[in-house]
Design goal:
Mean pLDDT: 95
Low-confidence stretches: none
CATH topology of the largest domain: Aspartate Aminotransferase, domain 2
Strand content: 5-15%
Number of helices: 16
CATH architecture of the largest domain: 3-Layer(aba) Sandwich
Length: 463
């Protein structure tokens, strides 16, 4: 493809994306295809000669789009929002076009310094503690997902509690991690990868809102110490996936400080709510946390993948992850941030561009207005649920998530979810709380308006 062809086809693709976003709400939310059906529409072997780009675009419409679940659809109420704004798409395009690898400061100083600044900007915009700013011993980095952030936090915690012994000897048998059964599955996966193991992951008891009980945490730590084990880390959730439960971070931090245990706070979606000053209760206790993460690629409009991960003291993180072969040593080594030492891979994309583009072109008022609109719609939906005798709330409503169930029991709840999703007019997901089926309605789409939520509720009460 020549530069002139790239210009022409690039314009066509931008037009295609703009049209897709403008019309995504006109069709079904989910795909009506069987496993293997998409592959069957494509040649079994790669093309022997280049094909016209027009044919590639045509197959986007013919093959790919009919096989998508449309996360940008205004009636997508499943899982969590995954919004993508036009400025962030352009930032991603610029990153791809530049084609740099920001693994070291020396490999592209602008990539490193812009990312450091973006984490400081977001610390300010979210009202996070000063200890997370890069100007002190802490600082932030853009990870791909909260799962990666959690693993990095666990590795830093392991480094601190063992003074690096596990990196040398590989022995982790006595270390223990604490969370709740409602925390993200990445906590257990991180324990497995870090050599802690699932058997040394403790699920601390929760209260009637599904939030961790600090007294139960203290008791669990005491029991493990008495058994000769070493408490290593606590992962607290500010907004669990199932019910948006918020663990009491201030009380948990008190236990962690007393016991010398690393505290990581996972606020993957809920943490972005702090863009609105009136919602900064989600930050409670963070001034005593060792690490924290949240995802602009969920509720802000920065396209996937973009997880913001901060540490109060970067020393343990770097010590856990830094390996310096001679071919990576530069004149600046040790005097600058080399983000390869803050993550699992060596190479890294220029993710900061899409965050920078979004903050400059859309500003903070755009996501603030979206968040406030979603909260108002959520409050209205809660009122409809409370007024409908066939349904009941399954968990305290919090932020933009409503958990409900049919009063006739699990079979009835599951049937509502299955029948509603089968219409492809909206999409919902199921979870389990207290052993009972729950229907989740997550209101977070950038294009979601009142009439979409109203239509979704009418669908749920009619199937």
């Amino acid at each position: 493809m020549t530069p002139d062809e790239f210009r022409r086809h690039g314009h066509a693709l931008i037009d295609w994306i703009a049209d897709y976003v403008a019309t995504v709400g006109d069709g079904p939310v989910s795909a009506a295809v069987a496993p293997g059906e998409i592959r069957a529409l494509l040649p079994e072997h790669p093309p022997a000669t280049p094909e016209p780009f027009e044919a590639v675009l045509a197959d986007l419409d013919r093959v790919v789009v009919p096989g998508l679940t449309h996360w940008q659809h205004p009636s997508f109420f499943a899982y969590f929002p995954c919004n993508s704004s036009f400025p962030s798409v352009l930032g991603e395009l610029a990153s791809a076009g530049l084609g740099v690898n920001g693994m070291l400061w020396a490999t592209s100083p602008a990539a490193t310094e812009l990312e450091t600044l973006m984490l400081d900007w977001m610390q300010e915009l979210l009202g996070l503690p000063e200890r997370f700013r890069s100007t002190g011993p802490g600082g932030g980095v853009i990870q791909g997902t909260a799962s990666e952030a959690t693993l990095c936090a666990l590795l830093a915690a392991r480094e601190r509690v063992t003074s690096g012994a596990t990196n040398r000897a590989g022995v982790t048998g006595g270390l223990v991690v604490y969370t709740t059964a409602h925390a993200h599955s990445s906590v257990e996966k991180g324990c497995r990868i870090a050599g802690i193991g699932s058997d040394h992951l403790r699920h601390v008891d929760v209260d009637d809102t599904y939030a961790m009980r600090a007294d139960a945490l203290a008791a669990a730590i005491a029991a493990d110490r008495a058994a000769g084990l070493t408490p290593m880390a606590v992962v607290a959730s500010v907004g669990t996936t199932s019910s948006m439960a918020v663990d009491p971070v201030p009380a948990i931090a008190e236990v962690c400080e007393r016991e010398g245990v690393w505290l990581h706070v996972d606020a993957a979606m809920a943490g972005i709510a702090a863009l609105c000053p009136e919602l900064r209760w989600v930050n409670a206790g963070l001034e005593r946390a060792d690490s924290f993460c949240t995802n602009p690629h969920k509720w802000m409009g920065v396209n996937f993948d973009c997880d913001l991960f901060w540490v109060a003291d970067r020393g343990a993180l770097i010590a856990a992850l830094s390996i310096l072969p001679e071919y990576l040593r530069t004149a600046q080594t040790g005097s600058v941030i080399d983000y390869r030492d803050w993550q699992l891979p060596l190479g890294r994309r220029f993710r900061a561009l899409k965050l920078w583009f979004t903050l400059r072109a859309d500003g903070v008022a755009t996501p603030q207005a979206m968040i406030r609109r979603h909260l108002a719609l959520t409050d209205e939906l809660v009122g409809w649920v409370e007024a409908e005798p066939r349904f009941e709330l399954a968990a305290p409503p919090r932020l933009n998530l409503v958990c409900l169930r049919h009063v006739d029991g699990d079979a009835a709840t599951d049937a509502v979810i299955e029948r509603a999703n089968a219409t492809r007019e909206a999409l919902f997901t199921r979870t389990v709380l207290d052993g009972r089926s729950v229907l989740r309605v997550c209101i977070g789409g950038a294009q979601t308006e009142r009439h979409h939520v109203e239509a979704a509720w009418k669908l749920l009460t009619s199937v």
